[in-house]
Amino acid sequence: MLLTSLGAVAATDVYEFETEEQRERFKRFTYELRCPKCQSQNLAGSDSMISQDLKRELHRLIIEGKSDQEIIDFMVSRYGDFVLYKPKFQANTYLLWLGPAALILVGLGVFGWVLYKRQPPEIE
Prior knowledge:
Blueprint: H1 2-11, H2 20-32, H3 49-63, H4 68-79, H5 94-118
Helix pairs in contact: 2-3
């Protein structure tokens, strides 16, 4: 058991930063960016080889002083919109953003229609 835990510690990458702000940006990005291999894991929760590559690339971009938008643009140009947990509101993501609201409205409409049809007939 001790050997297993030592292997896990050795596999963890440690990134050095010049400022605490850089460390916080790195941490925030690892939670906001999705691993391209793992279907629903962010970079912070993934140990896949590609997520490790993305973390190294993210570290390099932050150390080089790239802005948040430059980092996002780089990751999207390389891996597509899938890498973002919160994709931009654009033509190919309308359904993603508006779909849940449309389904709720349709559900409320069906619920209202069913309630209307279940009313007892009026007696004259």
